Amino acid sequence: RLVTVGVADTEAPVRVLTLRLLPLCFEAELARASVLRTLLFALNDEDLDVRIAAVALVAKVAPHNPAVVMPILRRVLLQLVTDIGHFGASRQLDGSVRVLGGLLSVAAPLMAPYTRAVLDVLRPKLDDPDPAVAAAVLRTAGALVDVGGVQSADDVRALCPPLLAALSDPLCVHKSSAALGLL
Fold first, then answer.
1. What pTM value is reported for the model?
2. 141 near 119, Cβ under 8 Å?
3. Do the beta carbons of residue 15 and residue 9 sit within 8 Å?
4. % of the chain at pLDDT higher than 70
5. How far apart are CA 147 and CA 104, in angstroms?
6. Nearest Cα residue to 141 out of 109, 168, 175, 169
7. For labelling alongside 68, which of 34, 96, 131, 176 has CA 20 to 30 A away?
8. Exposed (0-12), middle (13-18) or buried (19+): which is 170, by Cβ within 10 Å?
9. Could you give the CA distance from residue 17 to residue 65 in angstroms, rounded to a whole number?
10. How far apart (Å, rounded) are the C-alpha atoms in residues 174 and 35?
């Protein structure tokens, strides 16, 4: 009931807080299929912070019920990769990249098989003209590197030019700090 009420609340801060506090003591209960179906609504929420909190929560309960959670996470990953590949609007692209970064950071072992596809989608977005988007892509690429997504010399060569450009941009501190994090 608490999950249903928390996900359906009209205020985004309440939804975020509910999703962030639930895993403290209810992880096994949250792994039930009926509860996970309710959490699907939060994965598609209009508020970016709610989506990030929902991804983190679903990834945390994955060890308790992987048969239900893995298809959900794969669907979310596919949706995010598709969105990143096709979005032109910076705000939507930034949101999808941030959710993807959150997914990679909390569900790293589960996402390892998909790192090549994610890197292929992120690579063209590294040079985005919007500094916020470029910084988010660099941070997500850093999370991808932590998962093990950069496995060949060609991957490193592809990441170097945008990484060096971001480091040498004195006007955008966010981009530079994200590039340092990627290194």
1. 0.78
2. yes
3. yes
4. 91
5. 7
6. 175
7. 96
8. exposed
9. 23
10. 37
Amino acid at 45: D
The phi-psi region of residue 9 (left if phi > 0; otherwise alpha if psi is between -120 and 50; otherwise beta) is beta
CB 162 within 8 A of CB 128: no
- DSSP for residue 88: -
**DSSP helix/strand/coil, 112:** helix
65, 66, 71, 75 alpha-carbon torsion, rounded to 10°: 90
Asked if 116 and 104 touch (Cβ cutoff 8 Å), the reply is no
The pLDDT of residue 154 = 67
Tell which residue, 75, 88, 14, has the closest CA to residue 47. Answer: 14
Task: Encode 33-52 in three state secondary structure.
Answer: HHHHHHHHHHHCCCCHHHHH
| Amino acid letter, 63 | P
